[in-house]
Amino acid sequence: MLMDIKNNGSWILRSILQIRPDAKRLTQWDSLKRSEKFRLNKAYIEFLKEIPNVVWSGLVRSNIARPRAVFLLWLACHKRLPTKDRLMKIDIFHQPNCIFCNCAESVQHLFFECNVTSVVWEGVLRSKNLRGQFLKIAVAKTIYEIGWNRNRIVYNKNYTIRNTVNVIVDNIVNRVWVFPKYRHRIVQILLS
């Protein structure tokens, strides 16, 4: 059933329906219209039910890593990081090779297939005590550090990725130490 929108209706609702034209066909509109007062938050909740849940959402949500690391993780999950393959498409960068191993650079390659970054991942994830919140922080911080080191090498030409694992582990410890319930696990991670 189609919903009629009055010309004097909510400008927010009209703009939402312009972005998502399929929203006009939602069957939940009937129940929302029947109530004595229309509530935009109820309509928003109904919209959310239609959106499929992605596998990486738990990794980004409630992650206590630094906000910039979580944001970079979110960009990587959406394949929106400015890697050389994306920069070449918009004619900003002209050399497509990975700075670490000289293969074609993409998000997939940079963070998961590159020989150099694989060593970083192995170093960070070697601890068997990385679970839950620790694993979320480790993934976010590893992606952040790999991206940050890549940019340092590209733009400064004189930086190495040698101490990255130690920087990531130190950051996890420093970030989580403020939560007393995690301190015994921090000791286990440091001892392993």
Automatic annotation (TrEMBL):
InterPro entries: RVT-Znf. It comes from the Eukaryota. Residues 38-121 form the Reverse transcriptase zinc-binding domain. This is Reverse transcriptase zinc-binding domain-containing protein. It holds the Pfam family zf-RVT.
